[in-house]
Amino acid sequence: MSMKDLQDAFELIDQNADQAYFSGPKSEELVKQAEEALEITFPPSYREFLRRLGCGDIAGQEFYGIVNGNVENVSVPNGIWLTLTERKSTSLSRSPIIIGDTGDGGYYAIDRSVTTDGESPVVEWWAGPNAQIAVAQDFGEFFLRMISDALEE
Length: 153
What we know:
The chain is of the alpha+beta class. Helix content is 39%, strand content 19%.
């Protein structure tokens, strides 16, 4: 359901464009540069998000990704830069990709240590051993739920 959920989320964004700000489409080359910087591959749903929207927010809910052509040397909402920074300064392993902030000191991350049909679960992650909780089966489900919740508030 990941890609179906993702498409439903894109439709919600289109229907609520006045509440949405995203950095815009990113090239396949730039997405590959981000993967190389992280030494990881993105799941199909997150790759499609990056290719279509890059990063941004809707109704106050922010999603991290690629901001511009510099995948490593900027700040939030650049999830590539943040993931690399957290790897250096905390216990973040090489498998998570940070995609958002929980608002209470943690992050939402795609856990690439687990894959099913190319997709991976989204977890809440905090610095420390075994500090993660699964919140969605994949990025598409997470993205749709977070957008739906934000638009209802």
